[in-house]
Each structure stands twice: as C-alpha cells, then as structure tokens.
Amino acid sequence: MRYSLLNVVVNGLTGNRFTGPAWRDAAPKPAYDVVIVGGGGHGLATAYYLAKEHGIRNVAVLEKSWIGSGNAGRNTTIFRSNYLLPGNQPFYEWSVKLWEGLEQELNYNVMASQRGIVNLIHSDAQRDAYARRGNAMRLSGADAHLLDRDAVRRMMPFLDFDNARFPIKGGLWQPRAGTARHDAVVWGYARAADALGVDIVQNCEVVGFTRGPDGSVTGVETTRGTIAAEKVALAVAGSTSRVAKSLGIRLPIESHVLQAFVSEAVKPLVPGVVTFGAGHFYISQSDKGGLVFGGDLDGYNSYAQRGNLAVVEDVCEGGMAVMPLIGRVKLLRQWAGLCDMSMDGSPIVDVGPLAGLYLNTGWNYGGFKATPASGWCFAHTIARDEAHPLTAAMRLDRFRSGRVIDEKGVGAQPNLH
Amino acid sequence: MRIVCPYCGARDAHEFAYLGDAAPTRPDPSAADAVDAFHDYVHLRDNPAGPLDELWYHAAGCRRWLVVTRDTRTHAITATVLAATAEASS
Amino acid sequence: MSRLSSGGLVDRTRPLAFSFDGRRYGGFAGDTLASALLAADVRLVGRSFKYHRPRGIVGCGTEEPNALVELRSGARREPNARATTVELYDGLDARAQNAWPSVSFDVMAINGLFSPFFGAAFYYKTFMWPKAAWEKLYEPAIRRAAGLGRVADAPDPDAYDKAHAFCDLLVIGSGPAGLAAALTAGRAGLRVILAEEDFRFGGRLLSEAAPLDDAAPVAWVERTLAELASLPNVRPMPRTAIFGVYDGGTYGALERVADHLPIPGAHAPRQRLWKIVATRAILAAGAIDRPIVFGGNDRPGVMLAQAVESWVGRYAVAPAKALAVFTSADAAWETAFAAHDAGQQIAAVIDARAAVAPALLEAAKRRGLRTVLGGEVRSTAGKTLSSIEVFANGRSERLAVDGLAMSGGFSPNVHLTCHHGGRPQWNDAIAAFVPGAAPPGMVVAGAAAGTYGRSACFAEGAAAAAAIAADFGRTAPAFDAPRGVDAATGLSAFWHVEASKGMAFIDFQNDVAAKDVKLAVKEGFTSVEHLKRYTTLGMATDQGKLANVPGLAVLAKASGRTIAETGTTLFRPPWSPVSIGALAGHHRGRDFRPLRLTPSHVWAEEAGAVFVEAGPWLRAAWFPAPGETDWRVAVEREVKATRTAVGLIDVSTFGKIDLQGPDVGRLLDRLYVNTFSTLAPGRVRYGVMCREDGFVMDDGTTARLADDRWVMTTTTANAAKVAQHLEFCLQVLWSDLDVQAVSVTEQWAQISISGPRARDTLAGVVDDPAGIAAEALPYMGAVETTVMDGVKARIFRLSFAGELGYEIAVPADRGEALARALMAAGAAFGITPYGLEALAVMRIEKGHVSGPELNGQTTAADLGFGRMVSQKKDSIGRVMATRPGLVDPARPGFVGFRPLDRTQRLAAGAHLLARGAAATTDADLGWISSATWSPTLGHAVGLGFIAGGAARIGEVVRAWDGLRGTDVEVEVCAPCFYDPDGGRLRG
After folding, report:
1. Domains parsed from chain C with CATH numbers
2. Sign (positive or negative) of CA dihedral C34, C38, C44, C48
3. What part of C 590-609 touches B (C-beta under 8 Å)?
4. Most CB within 10 Å of its CB: which of A5, A186, B84, C585?
C-alpha cells in the first residue's frame, strides 16, 4: 500500500481502516537463495537492492530481536561524504547520492535533511589536512568548501569565538551532508524489501552454520530452526566476531562501545552538523528539537552497549567548549552502540572468506551514513560474487597485502580510529 | 570502571591507556612464514563476548603495563597482574 | 486562592513573590513553583508537543510531563524546568513554553483539529512531495514548531563544580525505607551517604497525613535527620539526584547547589557533579503513581492522586474547588480522605473495581463522601477541567468538577537497577514492574522494590542496611520503627477505558494516545522498542515515567499478549535530565584543557612573541619587530637572520626519554629501523621508528652520552605515545632487556640556535668553550658539560633549520635563563628569536619531514628512508613493511615541488594531477603536504607525495586546489631546496 498524503487523510478520516503491517512478520522457510544475517540498516538495504537491482527475491533477513535494534537504532543519524582516501570517498559520495533520492525510492519519508556539516578548524596544520580532504572530496564529485572564521561565525554565531582555548579558525563545509531519521531508514527499507517478496524474520538468532563437505557454508542454524541457503551474508556489525566464531574465522575487528546522547527538546539552535576539531565532540539537532551529540569511544572492548561517566563528561566538555550557551540544556538520554572497529578504521565488504559466505563489517562508528551504499554494494557482491568497484578496496585481504585504508593514520589499533 | 593497579591500588580506568587483547605473541621475525604470522599477530583478534585478558597501561600512574582479565559483556574485572610478570610466567 | 488555612510544611512566615507569564503571584518558602501556582489557581501552564493542547500540572516531582517552564532570562535562561521540582525563591520569573502568543491562546492549537491525521508516525508517510519541499518547506516548519523551551542567548555565566565522594553505603532516597537504612547503617558505623533529590528529606512522609508516633510524620523525619547529622560517618546530601550507575560501583549524581537562589553566591557553583564510589548501595527511590488512560485525561485539572496527596499534605494547597477521584487502588481512597479532612471538597470517589474493602467504604461514608464502584470516567470537558462523564451501573452521568485525581496503581522507581542491563520483572500481584537483576553491590528496598505500606518499608530498609553492615563485619542495632497505621494498599490493574470518548492519552507531553498504540500494532510495530520509536511514547522529557507502563498495557491488550510477555524497555541513565554545564564542570572556555608553556615563555612574551596553540602547548609563532604588522615580513626576517647570522628557538616541547642500562643499544636497534648499537658515546643519530604494521610512527634524534646512558627525542605530538611504546617493548615484549627508561620531557628545557654565528654565540654561554670547538664537537656530536657558570647542560650539535647549529638542554627551571643568556651572548652577532612559522619555512626548504609527512600513512620507503632500514636486524615493523602494498613502487613517494611560474604560490592540501587530466579520484596522483614561500630562494616550494615518488623527478604535473580555485603547474624535484649536501650543517 503506497504512502501518500491521500493515504494519511483517508486513514485519518476512517480511523485507520486502510492500513496494515508495514512488513510481514515472516516465518522462516526451510531454504532461500540468500540468507542475510542481521536486520539492521545494512542487512535490510542489502535485501532491498538484491531484490530491486538484481531481481533476487528469494531472500530472508534474519534478525535476532526486532529489526533496527542494533546500531541502526542507536546512532546519531548523520550522513556525509567527507572522507580523505580514494578507497573510501567515492563510496560515501555514492551513499549521499542514494540518500538524496531515498524517500522517493522507498516511498517512505526517512526525513533525510541536507543541512550540511561543518568540521571546525583550530590550527593551520588542521586546515592543511582538511584542505587535502576537501580536495579529495571534490575530486570524487562531492561538494566541499573551506570557510574562514568569519564565514563560520555568520553561519553559527553562537559558537565560542571569543573565549576558546582552541580558537576557531575556519571550517570545512559540506552542504549536502545531513541527517536522517534512523528508525525510519530501517522501517523504510524493511517495508520496501518486504513488498518485493523478501522475508523479514525477527526473533531469529543465528547460533551456528551448516557446512558442506568442501567446507563451504550451506546454511544457518537458528533459534527458529535450520535454514538452508546458497549464499549466507553477514551484516551484524559488532557481533561479527562472535557470529563468525563457529566458522573458525578470526577477523581484524574489535567490538567497542560508543556512547551517544540527546538533550531535552529545545527551539532550533544548531542548523546542521558541527564537529569540534580540538576534542572529540560533534552535534546536530533533530527535527523534534533534541540536540543529538557524541564523541569518542570509551576505548576498551565491550559488548555491554553501555559506557562510563568519564566519556559523558568528556563529551559535554567538548560541547561547552564549542557552544557555551548550552550549559543549561539538559542531557535527557544516553545510550550506546556496539561498534565493529576494524584494524584500519575502514569497512570490510567481501566475498568469503569461505565459499558461500559474504562479509559486511568493520563499519566502526560510521555505518549509518553508509547504509544505502553498503546495501547497494553488498547486494552486488552477493549477486555477482565479486566486489563492486566502489568497495573494491574494502576487501578482507588488504590487511595481508598492506593496502589498508587508514584515514586517521593510527595503524592497527581499533580504539584509536 | 576501576582497575586495581598492583602498585597504585584501585584507580579509575581513565588513568590508563588501553591497548587490547594480551594473548597475541610477537612471532619470530626470522621464521619462513613471518609475514603471515605477523599479519595474524597484528590484525586478527578473537574479540570475545566474555572474559578477555587485556593490556592496560597506567599512563597517569606508575607506567606499568597490566594484564587485566575483564568480561567484555559486563565490564567486571576478575584479575589484574603486571604484564612483565605475566610474560615471565607464561 | 486555594491555599488551605493551616497545615503543610510551607513556612507562612516567609512569603515569596514570583511571576509567571508576566503576572505576579505570592507563595511561601517551602513551595515549589507548581504548588505556588496551584495555590494561586493557575491551572493552565503549558501546551503539549504535537497538538498544542492545554496542559496543567499532573505530578508533583521529577515525573512531571506538562508543567515545563522557561526559568530566568538572558544568559541564565533555562528551558524545560519542571515547575514541580523548582524550589520557589523570591523574585522567581518563569514563563510557559511552546505556546504563542500565550498559553491560554495558542495559535498552534490548530494542530489539534488535524489530530486524526497527525497520528503516530504520520510524517513517515507523507511530506515527500514535491521532492524539494521536505527540506525547503515542511522540515523548517516542523523544526520551528518543535522543541519546547529556548536555549539561553549567551554563554552560561554560572560555574559548575565536580567532586568525588567515597562511602561504604550509598542510600538513594530518604523515604521510610531510605531513612531506616541510613539510620541503621549509620548507627553500625558504616560510612554512609544519604542522597535525596528533593530539597527536603523524608520522601512521601512529608505528604502523608497518617501519624507516626502520634505526631505528624515530619516530626519523626526531623528527629531522624538530627541523629544522622550527629553521626560523623553519615553524610546527608539533599538536592542531590543519583542519575546513573556506572562500572566499579561508581554513581553519577547531580547536586543542585544554588538553583533555589536567584543566582549563585559569589564563587559558588550553580550545580555540582558528584562521582560517588560506593561499595554498596540501597535503592530506596519509592514509587510513582500511575495515570489511567481515558478520554480527555489530559485536561488541566486531571492529576495523579499521589500529587494531590502532596498538594494537600505538604504544601497546604487545595488543587480544586471540587475534586473527584478515579482509581483502582486503595491508596487513592486514603488520599481522598486526607484531602477531605484538610478542607478539600471531594465530589466523588469513582473506583473501577466492582468491590473494595469495607473499611474504605466505611471511612468514606463517615465523611459523607459519594462513592461509585465499578465506574469509569469516559470523557472530560472544559478548557481547564469543568466536568467529567462517569459511566457506572449502565448509565452515564455528568459531574461538575474542576479537579480529578487518578491512580491506576504505582510504578516502582526501578530505573537505576536497569543501568547495567537488568530487566525489570512483571509482578501481577501489584500490577507493576519490580527490579530484576541490579548492578553489582546494589539492593532495593521499600516501594522501589514493590513493597507498599510504611511499616514494611521501614523494615525492609533497616534489614537491607543490617545485612550490609554484617558484610562489613559490623552489627547494626535493631531499628526502632515509629508506630503508625499503614494505609491500605490493595489494588487491581486497570489501564484503559475502552469506551472513552475523545483521545485517551498515554504520553501527555508527546501527545501519544491509545489510538496511536493501536495503530502501531496494526502496522506491525509490536515490540516495545518499535512501539516507543514509532509513537515516541516515553521519549519526552519525563522519559516515560508516567507513560511507559500504561503504554505497555495497551500494547499488550492490542497485540493479544500479557504484559509479562510484552516486556518493557530498559531504562538508561540519566534518571532525570542533567545539565550539560554540570557534566562539563570547569573544563570550558580557556580552561577546557590545560595550557602548557615552554620554559622560556616569559622571555618570549617580553620579546613580543605572537603565540599559537600547538597541541596543548602555547608556542611562539613569530616575533614581530617594532612596527612590523605583516607576519610574513617578520617570518622572512627571522629566516634570513637565521641563515645569515644566528637564530634562536625554544624546542623544549619535543619528547625526551632518558634511557640507561647495558641493553639500551639492543633496544634501540629493535625500535628504530636503523642501527644504534654501533653509535659511539658522544654521538647523536637521527632515527625513524615504525609501528609493527610497517608504517612510520615517529622520528627523532637519539644521543649516546655514555656507554649505558642515552637520551632519545621524539616529536612533540608523539612524546607520550613513544614513551608508552617504549614501556610496552620493555615490559611486554622484551622484559629480559636490562634497560630503565623514563620520560624527561618536562625535566629538561631545550633551546636551539642555528646559523653561521651559532658557535660564537654558544661560546659565550658554555663554561668550556674549547669543548664546543669544531673538532671537539663535530656535526651530530653530543656532549655533557656546563653552561652559565655551572649549570648542568647537554649540547647536541644538530639543526632542524639546516645551518650550523646546536640544541642545548638544561634543567627546565633554568630554561628561561638559558634563553636570555644566549640572546645576550648572540647580541653582537645579531641573534634573532624565531618561531614556528620560520621553523616551518626552513625545514621545508631543507626537505625535513615533519607532522604533515609523518601522518601515520607513510612508510620509511615512502619518505625516502628506505635505505636507512637495516636488513641485518629485526626492528618493529620491518617484517610487515615488506608486504606488497607497502613496497609497491606506485605508492605515493616523498618529493619536492617548484611552481613552473616562479611567481605562483603553492598550498598544502592541493592534490596532484597529470597535465590534461580531468579532476577525478582516479586521476589523483598525490598531494602537497607542506608548502611555503621561500625567502631564501625567492619562490614557493612544496613537499609532498606523488605516485611513483622519486622516479618522477623532472616531470611536470599540476597542483590542483579545487577548494581555493587554483591549478598550478609544478615540476617534481628532489625534496631539498637548500644546501642538499649539508655543507652548512657541517661548518
């Protein structure tokens, strides 16, 4: 059933008579062409594009609890394509292009709003680094502008320009970056995939795999029975290591906790996304009015999806350093995600490492913005058994070959990325 | 989170720097398969949801490296030893 | 005025004046803003989020969803203050929020007309057409309408403090269970902290009418507090909300130090963040009353029965002229009796249950109160409540009332027990969620555990404390509970009047009604998390304290499950919202991070330096001469002076590590790509250090002062990282090496002088000039000696600027004296201080790599140091550096650039493209990492990385800078523009 203003009006007048489940709560069949493990944004987007772009509809998405319960429901909703390295930037720029048309594509208002991102600059060295990045963005066809201090001040006069420990000297601005309503992205992809025949199976946890005599992966064992599959694709982010463990696979991944925060709703203050350049802090404001912000990882391996107070303080210190007028705004909710931090800080999208298996992980804390392009490229990878050009550099063997994609230049220590 | 440093006593975790899994052992650089072994050493991790022996460095304190046994699901710490002695006894 | 003529805990001898929405009112000390507004008959205090429906005060504490006001003004303006927790002070000024032009006539109330269309999640189904309209039209309108209060218009002028506290037992909440626990543990000698978020201790005891020891309960509370105050091991903390439970028995708490004053006292903080480390904790946070979901239950005048008990009992306010009670719980009957006895007219007690305890009916009859059993309220009317429709015994009746107290039972405040992932458990007997697994060290007592009834709460709190005391090896004396009669606690679950007319609200702030839950179920959002996110139920500022459980109940019924099967969302910190200012504390403005000053900072200031932040340091960027206004002129002068005479710069910020022991050489061989064990004493060598993955981590110069004494330098930025790395190598990798290492970055000042007259200058400062003669101290030599008449010094003959030069290290407290002494000694030769800008120019002229090149993405080979890597020994990173991706000749390699047109400028950040190539990622050949105008050469020079590296020397490519709109042809050259043979260094 198509969503539209007419749909809303008719249902409003008839007490919601003409509406029904946004997606079927499917029961698992014994076999599928493709089983996608993980009902987050990436898994659902992959299923959608498999059906839509590749005509592969005999697909199930298996989710251990309710769809979007992982990082898809916990992130700070930002999308952008302001990456530095050629292995990354074109991929993220494609993702932004997909964001731009997503509502129409899915017939679901994911509330993608391109109000821009400004990365604040506090030193000449930082400006040089952002210039390198901005030019890399432009080479990929993305938009980027270098702002001087006055331009930043005109855009956001409420930032601290007068009393800052690390004065603002300018900013790197990407106008097409923005935010989207994370839950809506999950539901939008789920509804669209379901409409194309994909089975979305909730409360179905994968606890093992079935293997062929040649060692290939032939299916999954779940809390709702065994399901055979030609192809099994993993899209479980921070849970990848423990899901892959039964396959005997060790990965260049560590699972870390990232905290995020929202304040009570206040009248509009922050026009777009702002990132602080002299500390770990970034902020935007949701359409409901809450300031959504976050900072660095806690820094230690964790599956607890909760963090400690030192980070909360650190993040709020960054907030007050950037915009000291928010002192009396109150933190309303804090939560945390389970981030698949990779050894070079960049994602892993690949065929393998076993026959019949496909891997999508290593999104660190930046998976939300990648949702559309990850789905697009992973669907291609699964359908064609080869990397998509945009994720060609994101293969698993890059750690062995040394062709790592290390944006921050901190090396093989996940908690530094 | 509080870590009981053998020298300094119970200190808040933010006094420490975290490295990661303490299990990987630096391979023999002169072995024939050194590149592969080093790849595994540098990159591959068990990443368990459960008890993990990890390396923490008391940066704001005695500057000793510790091996801390901590459950990654609950953050509960069950053991802490000096890394140097852990190495010696392993 | 609705103030009762007697009773309550307000101090009638201290009247206070305040204003709300521009009108002036009076209250008393001990009032909250809410109680004072009710006493003044102000019923309409705000508008709901979506429909802008009129809203009145519903609760009496942190749970309040409606009465959010803007407090104070200007820089101190605070949005979303809950009138129920704002302590009244003289001169308080508050305004309703989210309504225009006024709370009584709000233009946005027109949304209410569209409420059938504005159901849950309607915005996901529309606002998509035309494509551009979402961003240009719909969203801006939504954003303007959204939000509640306004942020302040200037930086927060108040100070926020942070403190730590430690105790054996943290008691959270000071109702009967909490006070009994604190008393018991305190008497047993434990270190106790008693935290209470209210401004008075006592919890519900402050509001209850039933006597304790034949007196008002507050008397027992006061006696108890007096005893607690007398115990040195007990620390009562009022106005302190425990908002979060973190690892290691760490509790986050917010103390509202001065929010009850117009402004904080001089030098006093507004609020204080406490980090309390408690071995054990007792959560005695009580329980909150529950609304019933019925048509029009959001009208101003409908409130929680528990709140009515407080208005009457604690604040001596009659909240209505005629008050009805709608309940399924005995407690609300007791509230009706107490209110009646205090002077509040009770129109009727309507109970959804078909039968209630005879004693209650008796008590009602004695008071002449009308009772209706098996009844329900189906709708309400009035802009503020004026009547209700009661349905019982098959017929409807309209009751004229302006107040309605509702209670569907209680919800224990289990929130803190969930902070470590514990799941609350459904208890059918009391129709409530009670704590599941609590964080380590915490137990729950009293109503928070689902134990209702005063004597049971006293007993539970005391028993919990006694058990904890026993764990500490102490015996607690038996708790002498005060005598009193327990109120009736019987109840039946009653959630929703199905036959409601008009919207039946669940979440009052976010305007989520029963129909929205049913719609969510119809559309498949049946898990509690989906329900919450789809409808926004529980996501308002009250965090679902009133909405969650009724919402769950409606969800369960609509999806054909029991509440236990449906489950619940988990509560996460904070229990109640915490100001961002308090979480930041003093770390704001210039105090955001510490400022590190070099040892010669005072001298540099005197010399007129312009400073720049370099990481945590403040370093001189340049030293303008009198009259010099253009920094470029100053920098050029500094460069020329250094290259022709002598220049001075403070380089103390470099990391310095002192290494001693017989195995230092062996260690350094493993750390650096090149060999150090062969370095003779009295020599210094440049070294490159890699990470285990083969990429360069840092560079520096390491000197051997004696056989077993060395000193290493690192870059400023990596000082701590290298020190940590070194300790890792010594303690984890090679604990058999006999080496001691210690960071001495702060202990030594280091000044660099460079230029043809450097030696002459130094001779004026060293005690033994012969020791620094050319043969005695050759290039890359190191010597320990003394300067300035006996000051210990180390002199290293090297120069980052590329001239004859020396770095002189003295103990840090002599650094400034050294700078002055060198300036004096060099005056005759025209010594010139220079800063980071000139240093950058000179090192770029020399092609020395620095931060922009050592960015963690480059290998030794990339940087042109390939031949430095010894193949005769292992070093960290050597094996991994042989991976194909790291030895690929197509990798970007370090080169220099000169613009073909020598008048053109180069900028770092430009990318490199072939001539004629389109500007695309695929055509990207590399980038310029450092660039400057060279006064020495008279044109711009750049350093950077190009695919293929040195193999391209001689080619012409383009430096493309799309950001700044330039595209300059450059020739690729060797990355050294000045004195490539190093003759000047060896002078």
Report:
1. 11-122 (3.10.20.440), 159-287+412-471 (3.50.50.60), 601-653+747-834 (3.30.1360.120), 655-744 (3.30.70.1400), 877-986 (2.40.30.110)
2. positive
3. none
4. A186
